[in-house]
Amino acid sequence: MPTPPPPGAPTSPVPAETAPGTVRPGGRTARVREAVLRAAGDTLAAEGYAALDLAEIARRADVGKTTVYRRWGTPAALAADLLVEMAETSVPRADTGTLDGDLRANARLVVKTLTDPRQGPLFRSLIAASLCDAQAADALHRFYAVRIAEWAGCVTDAVARGEVPAGTDAEAVVAAVSAPLYYAMVNVGRPLDQGDADRAAQGAAAAARAGVWA
Description:
Elements: H1 27-47, H2 54-61, H3 65-71, H4 75-89, H5 99-114, H6 119-130, H7 134-161, H8 170-188, H9 194-209
Helix pairs in contact: 1-2, 1-4, 1-6, 2-3, 4-7, 5-7, 5-8, 5-9, 6-7, 7-8, 8-9
């Protein structure tokens, strides 16, 4: 998805209530944020976290350098805001009517994202950043918390339908779907395909029905 954090990078996470991007701006501010985040995402995807230089991002986004430094301040804060934006605009959870169908849709979405020519390298860069920068790590953790919470309804619906035991930890089931996919990408380094997605979903669903997370 480690090098020392860039000079001046915060050594502790920014509180969620003050993290960049937690209040969606409007008008010109929204256009500036969109341009800067697009440039940041392109840079992360093509060149990695080490290339996330605020002055260069300002140039690529055709935005005043002072504006970028004032709003974001550090590469880690910019990466954090990008993750906020990605969480806000991510695909909503599926509702196929069955746990197997919903988890399969989730797994296929993860594989589609991780194998996308832009999104795959972007995520790898953000994961690498999270290993050496506390603020980037906090932002990545919050991103996944948002996405897992979004898909947890698949499991609570399955509980209501009697597909899995009462008390099943919905978030643990959803996390179990994506965990082997990220492991294959980061730790093993092999390409993912739809078969990987379907096996991950099938395994998580079977474990849930067996009461592993109840």
